[in-house]
Amino acid sequence: MSSTEEYLEESKTYPGHKVRRPGSQVSRWFAPWKRGLGTWGFVLNRVAGLGLVLYLFLHLAVLSLLTRGQEGWDAFITLAKSPLFLLLDVVLLAGILGHGLNGLRVALIGTGLLVRWHRPLFIAVAVIAVLGLVAGALLFFSA
Amino acid sequence: MSWQITYKIKRYHPDQGSRVDTFQVEIEPERTVLDGIELIWAKQDRTLVFRHACHHASCGSCGLVVNGVEVLPCIKLIQDATTDGGTLEVEPLRNFPVVADLVVDMAPFFERMQLIGMPIVGPTGPLPGQEPDEYTAFENCIECGLCLSACPVVATDSKYLGPAALAAAERVIEVSEGRLSDEVLAAVDNEHGLWRCHAAFECSEVCPSNVDPAGRIMALRRRMTFERLRRLVGAKG
Amino acid sequence: MSTPSHNYSAIVIGAGSTGSAVAHDLTLRGFAVTVVERGEIASGTTGRNHCLLHSGGRYCVKDQESAIECIEENMILRKIMPDALELNGGLFVAITDSDMDYKPLFLEGCEACNIPHKELTADEALKLEPNLNPEVKAAVWVPDGVFEPMRLCLSFLATAKSHGAVVRPFTEVKGLLMEGGRVTGVHVWDRIENKEFDIHADVVINAAGPWAEAIAEMAGIDVPVVPTPGVMVSMTGRHNQRVINRLNKSSDGDIVVPQRETSIIGTSSWKVEDADYIEIPEDHVRLMYERGAEMLPVLKSVSPRGIFTVARPLIGSRGEAEGRELSRTFKCFDHADEGVEGFVTISGGKTTTSRAMAETTVDVVCKKFGLEIPCTTRDTVLLSYRAFYTL
Asked: What's the complex ipTM?
């Protein structure tokens, strides 16, 4: 990302005037309001992607509990069986399904395949992700 | 019958910074958002600056963000942009250097279009075997910059070549049977070129001329991907 | 090409087609040029015009002076403006018996004005333009064209910039600087920074179109400009490939110009006092649909894309002839005739003839300074409009 700060520069179009160049606006990655399905897909991948990165670090932190011996680990297993934690697992599954399936969609259209179908594909991704999520949630809570 | 419309216009002057001014306008709902802005300038506030010329979506100079979405105000009717007694929040295009009020400097856009060099006004004509609708698709580009404003990738990469220029490059290849000049190819096949697009399709959503820049970017990618695959296979075989 | 050497400077008021062409011509003849425009380039009359590159056909019967100007300039612009024109050609179509009665007059006019033309049968015309009224009786082809008005101005201005001109949009003239009966510059309001200041020059050229009268008034001079608006309706979709004119004397709604991806029906004519904001008369709009559909019935079933109006800067005395009766030719006023030196007004005309208007104007300016520098704009190919933003 070539990030730029907002700054003033001379204009060629309007001689004698300085124009205000906009800075990098990462917030635009998370603003799907009033936008099309394509942007919802774009935002979904940013949000889910960042969530998965965050999870990865949490995951490593949890694994590092192993080095602290049996007691810490047993306490963690108890925590992991709590309903709240299972709920978080469902969120994780949502992130994986959303990012993974939508990633396949983006890879397809990004290579120029099924481009005209990008909206139906997004709806298909959403439907499959929700079905997978329901199935996963049932599995988590019944086990 | 006239409607009473509230225009909330984002103002900016180099010395005074930004603010939002509110104007009440009585105007027929069949008039355009641009008519209302011109009326404000003519009758209420001569200091308001905005860009416009043709008033029929041919010159591409009046593009704005109205109620959060990029539009050409010259063909956006008041009744379609708001409801009776409604509000129009008007801002300059995003991702462009702001000069004053609603005026942005189009230079970054035209630098890119000039680099690609695809003519738009005198149509190239359909290629052999091409339907008339297909050939007019790119040549309908009016270089309004709405696509650059709407693109979330341009928002974070000011070096990104952007939808209109990439669509133009695709058309150049189509017209010239696959040949791009080295300079254009270097700009297109580049991390700030073709491969930067992240398929938000917002350019095609806001395009007032059905150019479908996103579709053209993807077509260009397919072209280049398959070209590389062919070369790879060819080199090995 | 060597630039003629002298040190005169000029200010051009207005960046419509006339001001842009004047700025271009002045730079080629060695002047240091500043263009001041109160709005954006082509935001007045030029931007909102009908986009017709006239063949002269519309004037060849009643106003042959204009018609000859048009066909000459049409042929020149084709050579010098590479990327702002659509060379579509045009048809004059006869639908009624009255149209057929007009046909011989029209053909005579074309001959007299040297307008290339070709008679077509109804079948030939329908083959070229399938959307034509099937009742069409005959047609005549002429070399009409279409331009993109803003890009036409930008091409002139880009070339002027490449020769050193400074173009200042959003710079409104508030007054003329006068020294002993001589205009020495302009007092302007920079609308971007909201500041006022003076710009000095050896000559000021008033190319403010329908606002030229207000500018001239600042020097106490009366210029007879009649702001004469017309309504144009741009339809969704392009329904004709050539300009379709009614083969009859000029009247409301008798032309459909195909431009980019639209067909534009025009136009009407009435007079206004204030050209800043013009209400669009609904009855004129309805008339455009009706009359346009007489030539291209498909226009009845498509929706409008943009409806617009703007004042033509016709020259004439107020209160006399009606808009359509006023000549469409142009006039350059050297105000030395009224005792004011250093001040020239160019008005009337049309975008098609803007280069010729500039040639005449700059001839007048050169004469004032005793300069004998020939005009070279006929053969100078202009830069792309895109260069305006990159120079």
From this structure: 0.94
